[in-house]
Structure formats: structure tokens, C-alpha cells
Amino acid sequence: MDSNDDTEDVSLFDAEEETTNRPRKSKIRHPVASFFHLFFRVSAVVVYLLCEFLSSSFIACMVTIILLLSCDFWAVKNVTGRLMVGLRWWNHIDEDGKSHWVFESRKESSQENKTVSEAESRIFWLGLIACPVLWVIFAFSALFSFRIKWLAVVIMGVVLQGANLYGYIRCKVGSRKNLTSMATSYLGKQFLRQNTGDDQTS
């Protein structure tokens, strides 16, 4: 993602805001979405680990893993994030040809009630975080064991699943500009506090 691109944080689907008065539930409200949120990414990991036993063809294993990763990227980015946690990120090009990254989150009601299920939220974030970590481990393993031909596959896993992780973290915590201002404010306070302490001791 180009750091020069404009970004904005907006509410997700104004037409769906009327549903935010429903109480937060612990049960799984979208079992199909929850299943496919884990199915593609877990299947890609399993195929990678067992590819030498499943097939002697490197090309067949590589194509299968890349297809699973691609299906996972599309499903998580466009479907499961919206349904399971009320988040979505996307990119659009304006009339001037300028790229805009948009990070959406469903608005919460004044009563702090959400349509998001706690169980679905745990499943979503666990799968979203754990699998990219595994692909990073696979990348280092392939590098240090000199399995050079697998580096392209594991890098694809890191990139696709890391992109979704980055996008949804941006949706969750807000704009990068807000994060920068918060960090600057915190460092400024720490600097002033340290100087004040030094003046008092002297």
C-alpha cells in the first residue's frame, strides 16, 4: 500500500445501522461465514505441511495452495469481516485517477449494543492473526532449510494474509494519522514529565 494514498475511516453500510440495537450475543450467528473464514486458510496450511505426502508434484501443490490463499483473501476481505466483526477495507480510484484506501467499521449505538457475536469475534481475530504468524515461521523455515522453491509460496501466504491483517487492524484502531498523533502526544507528555522531574531534582 502506498503511504501517499489518501485514507479515510467511515461507517459501514448506513442501511445496516438499524440492526445495531440487537444485543451482543455469544453464539455464532453466521456459521457458514465462520466456517469459510477458517476453512481456506487452515486448508492452505495443511496442504503446505502435507504436500510431500499428498502429491509428488510441486506444481500441483503450489497451485492448490495459491488457489486456497486467493479464495481466503477474497472471502475474508469481502465477506467474513463484514459479517463477523462489522469491519471492511477496500480501495477505489477517483475521477482524477488518485487511489483512496477506505477502512470501514459499523457504527455502534448509544447503548453500546452490537450485532457482533463474541464467539464470532474470537474466531475471526484468532484465525486472522494466527495464520499469518504461521506463514512467517514457514518463510524462515524454508529459508534456513534451503527450500528455495517454496519461498515464493510462503511469501504469497505472508503477503495475502498479512494484507488482510493490516487492513482489519486499521479498521479496528482507526486512521494511521490518529495513531501518529496519539504516539506524538504520548512522547511529548513523557518528554515534558522527564524535564519537569529533572528540574525538581536540581
Automatic annotation (TrEMBL):
InterPro entries attached to this UniProt entry: TVP23-like
Membrane topology per record: Multi-pass membrane protein
Transmembrane in keyword set: yes
Segments passing through the bilayer: 32-50, 56-76, 123-144, 150-169
Organism ancestry: Eukaryota, Metazoa, Chordata, Craniata, Vertebrata
Major localisation: membrane
GO terms of biological process kind: protein secretion; vesicle-mediated transport
Coiled coil: none
Compartments where found: Membrane
Cellular component per GO, a single term: Golgi membrane
Protein family membership: Belongs to the TVP23 family.
Name this protein carries in UniProt: Golgi apparatus membrane protein TVP23 homolog
Gene from which the chain derives: LOC116553085
Keywords, alphabetical: Membrane, Transmembrane, Transmembrane helix
